[in-house]
Design a protein that fits this description.
63% of the residues lie in helices and 0% in strands. It is mainly α. 16% of the residues are buried.
């Protein structure tokens, strides 16, 4: 398959990927098509790593983006990983040029826990 160019690009959470993959799986099974190996592995991977529903993940991203020091890529990373401790959250921010205060870390963790 030759790809000429990217028409559109959109960030989505792992939970949204899982829902999309499950919809593809259902349509393939309904039509009687065999699931390719890559699709089966992708679904298995998404099932193992998804920690919340797509609605909760999208809501978390939107709330995180309202905070001051959160960039979109970090918001999506937090929604995918769902860190529950300060150390896990600091690992996400390890490459950034700034550090978060304890209150900022706690605020993010509180948001994550409410959307878990």
């Amino acid at each position: 398959m030759n790809v000429k160019g990217i028409v559109d690009e959109e960030r989505i959470t792992l939970s949204e990927v899982r829902e999309t993959l499950l919809a593809v799986e259902a349509s393939r099974l309904e039509s009687g098509s065999e699931l390719p190996y890559e699709l089966r592995r992708s679904i298995e991977h998404a099932n193992q790593l998804t920690k919340t529903s797509a609605v909760n993940a999208r809501s978390l991203v939107e709330k995180l983006l309202t905070l001051e020091k959160i960039k979109p890529d970090i918001a999506y990373r937090i929604a995918n990983l769902m860190p529950r401790t300060r150390d896990e959250l600091r690992a996400i921010y390890a490459k950034e040029r700034f550090t978060l205060s304890g209150e900022e870390l706690d605020e993010i963790i509180e948001l994550v826990i409410t959307h878990y």
